[in-house]
Amino acid sequence: MRLHRPLTCVYLLTCSAVGFGANPVASASFIGGEQGRIQVQVKINQQGPFLFLFDTGSMNVISLDLARKLGLTMSGHSTVQSFGGTIETSSAPVNSIKVGDLTMQGAQAVVISGGPFTPGSLTGMLGREFLGNLVTEVDYERDALKFFDPKTFVYAGRGARVPLTLHENGAISIPAQIFGADANLQIDSGNGISLVLYPRFVHKHGLSSKLEAITGYGYGGLTRAMVTRAPIFRAGA
To answer: What is the pTM of this model?
Structure first.
C-alpha cells in the first residue's frame, strides 16, 4: 500500500530542550502528546481544519466520510488485512495538505472506511509521505512540531544519536536491546503504547504475560495484546 518514494527526512523525537543551528521553516502545534498520540489540525484542499493523527508509522490516510465530503476522486478499490481487522481501501489525489504554516502540494492519500475514524473525532493520518523532504522535531514538552530545511539543519543538543534504517515500504527502524536481546524496532509516533513486540520475538525469547488488554487501534479497529513491563530498554547510548 505504499504510495510514494522512500522517505528522505530525519525524525528528531525529543523530550527536552535541544540546540539547532538553523531556524525552522515552519511549525505547528499539537494536542494529545501526553497520551502518546500527536493530533494536529489539518486543512485539505483549503477546507477544514480537520483532526488528524501525526503518524510516522502510517501513510497519508483519509477517512471515507471525509473523502466524500471533500469530493475527492477515488480509484483502485481493494480489501486488505490490517491491524484490528480487514478494511476496504482506495486511493485519491489531494491538491494540498496544510498543518500549521506548512503546506504540501500534490499529495496522494489512502482512503479507508471504518477503522479508528468516528464522527467528531479523528478523520485522517499524516504519514511518511507528508514529511519526505524535511527534518522534523517533535517537542512533547511544548506540544509543537518544527520543520527544518535539511540543507541548513545542524543539531547541537545533548541527545543520543541512533542509526536509522529507511525501508522500502517507508518504515523507519532502529537497532535496540530489550529483555537483554537484540531487536529491530520501528519508530511509530502514532502508537499509544511505549513498545510493542511481535509474536515471533516473544516466542523466540520465551516472554510471557498474564494480563490481556485493549492497547490501541489500527486501521481495522481496536487491537488487543498481552501487557507486561520490560526491566531495561536500550537504544544507542
So the answer is: 0.76
